[in-house]
Amino acid sequence: MSSLAAILNNPIEYLKGVGPQRGDLLRKEIGVFTFRDLLHYFPFRYVDKTKVEKVVQLHYQMDFVQLRGRIVRKEVIGDKRAKRLVATFRDETGEIPLVWFQGWQWMEKSLQLHTPYLVFGRLSMFNGYLQLSHPEMDLVSTEAGGGKQFLEPVYSTTEKLKARGLTGKAIGKLTSNLLEQLLPGEVPENIPASILQQYRLLPRHVAFFKIHKPMNEEEAKMAQRRLKFEELFIVQMRICRLKIRRHQLSHGYRFDNVGEYFNGFYNEHLPFPLTGAQKRVIKEIRQDTVTGRQMNRLLQGDVGSGKTMVALLSMLLAVDNGFQACLMAPTEILSQQHYKGLCELLAQMPLKVALLTGSIKGKARKAILEQVAGGEIQILIGTHALLENEVVFKNLGLAIVDEQHRFGVAQRALLWQKNNIPPHILVMTATPIPRTLAMTIYGDLDVSVIDEMPPGRKPITTVHRTEFQRPQVMDFIREEIKKGRQAYIVYPLIEDSEKLDYENLMKGYEEVKAFFPEPRYYISMVHGRQKADQRNTNMQRFVTGDTQIMVATTVIEVGVNVPNASVMVIESTERFGLSQLHQLRGRVGRGADQSFCILMTGNKVGQDSKQRIEVMVQTNNGFLISEKDMELRGPGDMEGTRQSGVLDFKLADIVQDKPILEAARACAEKILSDDPDLQLPDNQPLRNYLALLQGKSQWSKIS
Ligand code: ADP
Ligand code: MG
């Protein structure tokens, strides 16, 4: 077995047709070090050589075409610097030029006139005429013979490789050499037989053969499907095992009691019935916290879905069991809002709640720190000031992080270190990420979702307006203000062009002021260049209703709650991503009245922006929007995924291959729940394969 498998470990230069110099290039250029790497160097598409077109039927929308005919003329044209060879190719229906810009000397010599060729290449237009440039030319023995009867794989290559004769075709030839000498046993199976059967997957060695040398499209698809499944399945197996291991190793406090704090609040002071989704999540949290293991849960819920109430009830659960709890928010304003909101809700409860932020100093700070250390303060709310060393809890049992994308993984880890036994962690985010992505990058966290809005919300009406319509937009704002409402006008902020953004904002501010000369209308301006207390004051004036219009950069994006605001105007919408637009829109629609989101753009809008705007106009559903965002931008560009490296798949694409990913995840979970240590005979190949991978990458880094 080991000697058989070893062939794939051979250095690439030992393969027939490679040698030391080409070996060097293959390593440097495309990362192919071993036979195994070459086997995994997949074609990026196939060309169908089973079809032969007629010249008369060609049209510009065709891509690659194959023709059969003869060359009737060839001539070199153009001046010294831009010479090219033009060969006139004819079949029984018409003529088309074949053109070479490079290597034309050699082609001119070698092309034979009046001899049957099979020609394959990409159609292009030049001066309004169709032509083929740099086509592949194959001499065919009889004119009646068909095209080649299989799909030809196309491999990507580089200029340097080409210079050494390693064209895409030549790489294909090397792969053929490898496949010829490979025995089935040398490509051992790594998916249990029952799963192969259930999902009708090709055996591993067959799949590798067919992905490089399919006879037809169907075979290529089958091979890809099998290998995509494998890729996703192996990743999911590793993530799930990591999670199991963490569960086995981690100790956590037990919250066995549901006592007077939780029940007292729930029965007497709950201001509204919980939604089904809120109830479900609280149940999940309760289940997590009685296992004796540390909870690590991500709670996703759209803006306004009611995450705060879930946080509050969870904290009461901690207090019921004699523990302290803390709630950490990314900004001073947000923590103040949380503090104020929770104090109101808890006014009738015998509980000590405190706020700790950077601006609480001196004696007041000292007093809070002492009471946290002494355990008198049961619930502590604050910014990342909570993470500082001087903050020592008596017995922190639960730490909640709101709006998690503002906190790094490292900061979260600090919370763990607050005790010997780490507190339970609940991370809440209003930036929904698609489930498939969550499965992969947060795969070892447990995920809860609030997918239901509190009743009675009116969906926000979203419209697109251009610069031409600005006066009407301003009139609309005036109407809303007359009804007693408030409005946001938000400008983009991009780090690279901070100066420009600042100027934009100022210009906007002056413009808005000019539109609202009435002395009774006031405008708050908030941006990143202001000092924290100035920003705070301005924000506070809007919160209390002293100002009617808030002109701001995206600093207001996170969490600010002004239920009376009914209009959100987003300037230069083109410059925002979908998720960010959705976040901004979530600032309105928090009261009972109809709210509006107005997406402003220039008069001309690019295709990309158009698509995003359409999505925004059509739906208020954050999950749909995040799915769409991922589709438009690709998973690699989603927030927080870039560095994680877990998305470097060779074949799979978690957007397009979502059904495969879901199946692979389900399989991984099932296998591990039936056979956690992979002891069953059916799971041996998988176990061996995973053992081989062990230590090959830094997987523990995934958050
Ligand atoms: P988010 O998930 O964005 O943090 P919040 O917790 O701030 O949302 O809740 C948004 C608003 O909805 C708050 O005013 C809150 O009081 C209200 N709310 C939360 N849950 C419910 C519910 N079950 N029924 C009615 N209103 C609710
Ligand atoms: Mg919130």
Automatic annotation (TrEMBL):
Domain Helicase ATP-binding: 288-450
Enzyme category, top tier: isomerase
Molecular function in Gene Ontology: 3'-5' DNA helicase activity; ATP binding; ATP hydrolysis activity; DNA binding
PROSITE patterns named among the record's database cross-references: HELICASE_ATP_BIND_1, HELICASE_CTER
Reaction equations catalysed: ATP + H2O = ADP + phosphate + H(+); Couples ATP hydrolysis with the unwinding of duplex DNA by translocating in the 3'-5' direction
UniProt keyword terms in alphabetical order: ATP-binding, DNA damage, DNA recombination, DNA repair, DNA-binding, Helicase, Hydrolase, Isomerase, Nucleotide-binding
Residues covered by the Helicase C-terminal domain: 469-636
One GO term of the biological process aspect: DNA repair
Enzyme Commission (EC) number: 5.6.2.4
Entries under InterPro entries matching the protein: ATP-dep_DNA_helicase_RecG, DEAD/DEAH_box_helicase_dom, Helicase_ATP-bd, Helicase_C-like, NA-bd_OB-fold, P-loop_NTPase, RecG/Mfd, RecG_dom3_C
Top-rank taxon: Bacteria
Role description: Plays a critical role in recombination and DNA repair. Helps process Holliday junction intermediates to mature products by catalyzing branch migration. Has replication fork regression activity, unwinds stalled or blocked replication forks to make a HJ that can be resolved. Has a DNA unwinding activity characteristic of a DNA helicase with 3'-5' polarity.
Family: Belongs to the helicase family. RecG subfamily.
Name of this protein: ATP-dependent DNA helicase RecG
Annotated source species: Chitinophaga costaii
